[in-house]
Amino acid sequence: MSHELSHLDALEAEAIHIMREVAAELERPVLLFSGGKDSIVLLRLAEKAFRPARFPFPVMHVDTGHNFPEVIAFRDRLIEEIGERLIVASVQESIDKGRVVEERGPRASRNRLQTVTLLDAIEQHGFDAAFGGARRDEERARAKERIFSFRDDFGQWDPKAQRPELWQLYNGRVRKGEHVRVFPISNWTELDVWQYIERERLELPPIYFAHEREVFARDGMLYAASEFVELMEGEQVFTETVRYRTVGDMTCTGAVASTAVTLETVVAEIAATNITERGQTRADDRVTEAAMEDRKREGYF
Amino acid sequence: MSITHESNGHRSADQRIAETELLRFATAGSVDDGKSTLIGRLLHDAKSILADQLAHVKETSERRGDGELNLALLTDGLRAEREQGITIDVAYRSFQTDKRRFIIADCPGHEQYTRNMVTGASTADLALVLVDARNGLVRQSRRHAAISALLRTPHLVVAINKMDLVDYDQAVYDAIVADFKSWSAGLDFAEAMFIPISALKGDNVVEASANMPWYEGPTLLHHLETVEIAGDRNLDDWRFPVQWVIRPQNDERHHDYRGYAGQVAAGVLTPGAEVVVLPSGRSSRIAGIDTFDGPIAEAFPPQSVTLLLEDDLDISRGDLIARAGEANPPTVARELEAVVCWMSDTPLRAGGRYALKHTTRAVRAIVEAVDWHLDVETLERQGNDHGLALNEIGHVKLRLSGPLVFDPYTRNRETGSFILIDEATNDTVGAGLIATPEG
User: Fold this and answer.
1) CATH node for B331-434
2) Segments in chain A below pLDDT 50
3) In chain A, what are the domains?
4) Distance from CA of B74 to the nearest CA of A (A)
């Protein structure tokens, strides 16, 4: 009998180990859930780590108010099905309370505002660890980030002062007010995530599969027409068959023209693609060369 | 190649994209030795760079006057690195071929060199040491090979780079290989491989070189895809550090469920076997091995599973489950000797107190003595009267606040390693390899 694991089994074993370390060593962890594929994988990994018991932490969604309605419906059904606790932190509430100011104009986005809502919620609930679904292959700054990523009491990441991470010995020690962001699928690629979803038969929000949608073209991407976006002069709404490769706000997540309606055909498209998921679908990373690094330093996901 | 395991019930027979084996390797080097170019070349020629990333690098190369395509830019991460043309921290990058899935630990060599190399080597199956063909073996390449040997990275590849700048001359290659072999005679590697390459031109990286017909070995990628790593793990001893106890509360169906969750550190664990729980020394039998996907017939490293025992013992995080009556039982002790790599600006000194994390157990440690430190290039021991400064590696004796259950690092990387944490700053300040006592 062979005693070698496949790469997905090895990555899964590593992620389960990481989740159990956090549960054992930190007082108040929380799992950040966006409704996207990476956080759906995180939920499955948490089931693998802690069943038949319930998760030793709640699940939290930072709701911008600009989410795809299909994703919110999916979120509520999935959390109900797995029988876990959901906390919703609302960007709209942060706006109403004057913690942040809504951007205006056709390029307005609530993406950056989420950071304040997230940090406020972490402080309010006294969380000292937050699981996220970020992966090192997503973006260049993330390739340098630790699996246990220390945040000071302002939520800031300091890339030059990271704790060395040796063997599988993670150091999650924090003082009051500080926390760690923990990324159990750091070493996974987009293709690993899709293969895992296929293998585990995980259900996804319907927007990941080809569907007809009213869209408009901007900066070479297709965006959903919605009440949250102002069109610029010359932009026309038309109907296209699209799917989403990542799930973020309706205002800043681009769609991909596609006819893939099954998991198998989506995975085949991902395996054959010649463009990165962020490059293809995220307006927020295009602003400057170091856009993600800047947002991460401020405390972004 | 699809490696599946029959006892994993969830594996579907009609998998469309094959699952492959995972190989982790570490590179180290300084700014000029071509490491970033080599990684960029591997990623590029293995078709792991997508069109938008490539367009970005092309645009940046042209803007900075680096020529058409500076492959080194593919691995730039942080703004300060791009601005200063340096690499600050270990970066982890993934790529995949039809044969294997790879994770590269890309370790900068110029600053914090020992800390970075030790970090990268600690999880690597293979060390890729770069040598500039024009300069031969320099401090940096010797240091990386020595640290890889110390950390027991099982496989070593010495890539002799920039062969294009020495006219692809076999004599240059032969001299470096001979020099390395005579220098490294005392180092312990399962296997070493020498490959002449040009990362810049692509010779012997992915494609075999037409410029070096005298070299008959594999290309670098071919070697990475085929080097045998299945035998690297310890499947003889049984080591299962208990990480988390699963006890479902308020659940009628699982009222009596008590599972010990953890990652197998060594051995092939099977139900029915007699086991001993350390440090208490109480024994029981494995009643079953549980996973979310159902029970499995055996568990081996690095699987994360849940053990069920026949007896209701008081077992908690930090305990270690081993096989009863083993030929090589783990040591249970309140003191240990270790080789420690120091990673903090504040030196380690005799009398110093630290938190120590070993497998899933945390204790406090007091440094009783610093016996010697190493010349990291030669691994020669040198007398020590100052403790360990940043980037120094030395032999220490530690006294512990409670018992640890451990093996020598040479026998098991997982149960033979620990980290030291400064309790004032919470920083990880030391990496320890447990040694067999010197008496």
Assistant:
1) 2.40.30.10
2) 287
3) 7-192+290-298 (3.40.50.620), 205-285 (no CATH)
4) 9
